[in-house]
Amino acid sequence: MSDFVSRGWSLYIAIVTVLSLLACLALLVIAARRKVMAADNTTGHTWDVDLKELNNPLPRWWMGLFVLTVVFGAIYLVLYPGLGANPGRLGWTSEGQYEAEQARAAAKMAERYAPFAAMSDEQLIGNAEVRAIGERLFLNNCAMCHGSDARGSKGFPNLTDGDWLWGGEQANIVQTITQGRQGNMPPMAAAVGSAEDVRNVANYVLSLSGSPHNNIAAQLGRSKFVACAACHGADGKGNAALGAPNLTDKNWLHGWGEEAVIRMISEGKLNVMPAFEGRLSEPQIRILAAHVKSLSVPAAGVPASR
């Protein structure tokens, strides 16, 4: 692969480019010297009996455009990269232009978000302008998973119900957006016991939230739930530090019912929330977090979005 980025290839490209321009100039010179033939100025081709193809020189306006094109190409190659590895007199690069544009955008963004820097979390949540900006950030970055109404879907949390896997404080939400999250429910069937034990534990889990269940199976599964208590707690109320869901409410992220719970216990589940650090600036993340928080917890005088 190094053969294709060596100096030899650079020189080859430069030579071919220069020779192409010189060839264009030579063609112009040859065409400019051509004159109209006095006697028979045809190519010898005839169509439809008397339609003859003339051998006239190129029009002057066309020649002028050709000359301008060649001159423009030569000037361009002097100023911009084009002759192999030659950077050009202006030193322009696409990477440099991109970085300059990004710097200008960052400066404008910093100016736009500066008025919100001194606001507290509560002030951000209660500010209508902040919520409007946060809503746009949410639609552009989060709606593809959580939905435009933030109510989520199977496997994607509902952000409007106040149920938080990793904690619902502003600092928790900022950390989630910044660093992302990875929730891993390992397959627990082997730890629980037999297939019947898994079914009993599933019914016990359903009983914790008062969901329809087999009461006898739930009683039998209570002792086996100890295998799950390390993450979900002995009372089943979850652990925000691990992202372990609260099993005592009726919020089911991956499906509801005996079969769905059995599948979770048997197969486990891996959920990934991508990190937005680097994609969004710190002020943007803080404002986005304030918007997400406002969806489930009313700010002062601001109704929750539901």
UniProtKB/TrEMBL annotation:
What residue intervals traverse the membrane? 62-80
Compartment annotation: Cell inner membrane
Residues that coordinate or bind heme c 1: 142, 145-146, 273
Which Pfam family name is an example for this entry?
Cytochrome_CBB3
Where do the annotations place heme c 2 binding?
185, 228, 231-232
Q: Which family does it belong to?
A: Belongs to the CcoP / FixP family.
Q: How does it assemble?
A: Component of the cbb3-type cytochrome c oxidase.
- The protein's name is Cbb3-type cytochrome c oxidase subunit
- Which source organism does the UniProt entry give? Rivibacter subsaxonicus
